[in-house]
Amino acid sequence: MSGVRYSIVITCYNQQEFIKDAVESALLQRHAPKEVIVVDDGSRDGSLEVLKQYESSVDLLVLPTNCGVSEARNRGAAIARGEYLIFLDGDDLFTPWALEVYERLVAERKPATIVSGVRRFEGLVPVFPPDDAPERLEFVEYESLMAKDRVSGMYTGAFVINRLAFQDVGGWSPGIWHLDTQDLYAKLAYSGNAILVLSPYTMLYRMHAANSIRSVRSYIQAGHLIMDRERAGLYPGGPHRQFERYARHGGVIFFCANKLLCAGLFTDALRLAARGGPMILATIIRRSILMLRGRRQVQTRELRPQESSCHRAVAQNDS
User: Fold this and answer.
1) pLDDT in tens, 220-260
2) How far apart are CA 200 and CA 5, in angstroms?
3) pLDDT tens digit string along 25-46?
4) Helix, strand and coil in the chain, % to nearest 5
5) To the nearest 10°, the Cα dihedral for 120, 122, 127, 128?
6) Is residue 120 part of a domain?
7) CATH no. for residue 127?
8) Pairing status of strand 84-89 against strand 159-162
């Protein structure tokens, strides 16, 4: 055992303006043994010069040419030593309490995966005073990712994965850009117990002009690719789990079709929805069943002891 609990893999491609914030948000995590691996994916904008300032604090892997984000993440994971992997894009950040939240769950439950929430922001990075740190953790535990019964966004930097489970499914799939996290989620669907963190959020998603989510047309190819992979039998579970997978994929296809409709790409949206009709129907059926049956109970844990008002007053007077 390496003694490293978390391997944080940060990928960067021409993100000179943002990469410093991403790296520092990882280095500032203090709640568990970690390593930070940064993969520069052939940047040509000065990102590498920024990253060289951190060579004594991170493992810096420089790719001579741009290989794409999935390959860059896999390259970083290949040299990771941690029990768990967390992948962060170079324009996003962790909250100061991210590893504290994860470690609270890992120490108690040893999940195969953790899915958490994010906060979107534009402009300046939000500042979190120490006395505003969250005191309570709310989460739901499932026997697998596929059993998750609450709708939640899937963000790369808010997805914690056991390294052996990641290796077992072959890592990130090459050739998928949009919906890459959804694809990995489907591959890990039956890899072991999973936890959905409802509060607090653990990642900051930066909104800017070059966000991949703004490339609406990319959802066309990505949506069809997810369906192609399902019909080729590339996701686990076998024929008897097909309905579960369809219900999962249907939500993704509906999301993509809605994005296309909002962008005025009506023909593409209808084609995608028509091809994914059986999956969307499975989603509707499963959500109707959940409404009747009810969802899993939310559990809570204290992240840190709450100080009494008297204790706070004494501390303030002493300072």
Assistant:
1) 999 999 999 999 999 999 999 999 999 999 999 999 999 99
2) 21
3) 999 998 899 999 999 999 999 9
4) 45, 20, 35
5) -10
6) yes
7) 3.90.550.10
8) antiparallel
